[in-house]
Write a structure and sequence with these properties.
It contains six helices and three strands. By secondary structure, the chain is α+β, with helices and mostly antiparallel strands.
Length: about 150
């Protein structure tokens, strides 16, 4: 039986995300401090040089929108590279909480995407075989020919 068939029989749905952030293509906003001047332009050039990262201007002059595949990059990786290069990111409490949540979600998603999927039907079969190998109350020791004797 093919894997896709087993998933359909088990009722699992893969490949159609429930909400916009569930896919592997991410679109995130990176916010910068006001000083030093022109760091947003330099950061845009630096990020655009990365293969697989697309950069667009943000909603305000101190932000950038980055588009990337979560299997290639994460927001944490991109922001760490910017901080290492000397860029100053905004560090208000709300922004830090938002970043921490995105870091956790993307890390969990990458971990789940890279781990092998487990077939539900096969896991049940393991327990069925283990249960049938052990003696239990439903077992009848009477030979089959005597059970059918009338």
């Amino acid at each position: 039986m093919r894997r896709e068939t087993a998933y359909k029989l088990a009722g699992r749905r893969h490949g159609n995300p429930q909400h916009a952030g569930a896919g592997v293509l991410k679109s995130r906003e990176i916010r910068f401090k006001q000083w030093p001047a022109d760091q947003v332009v330099q950061a845009r050039r630096s990020l655009a040089a990365l293969r697989g990262v697309q950069v667009a201007p943000g909603r305000d002059p101190l932000s950038l929108i980055v588009h990337y595949n979560v299997l290639d990059f994460t927001l944490e990786l991109l922001e760490e590279a910017l901080v290492t290069a000397g860029f100053q990111l905004e560090r208000t409490l709300l922004i830090r909480l938002h970043r921490a949540l995105i870091y956790y979600v993307e890390d969990t998603q990458v971990h789940n995407l890279r781990s092998p999927e487990r077939l539900i039907k096969q896991s049940h079969e393991v327990y069925v075989h283990a249960y049938s190998a052990h003696p239990h109350g439903d077992h009848d020791d009477t030979p089959p020919d005597l059970r059918e004797y009338k």
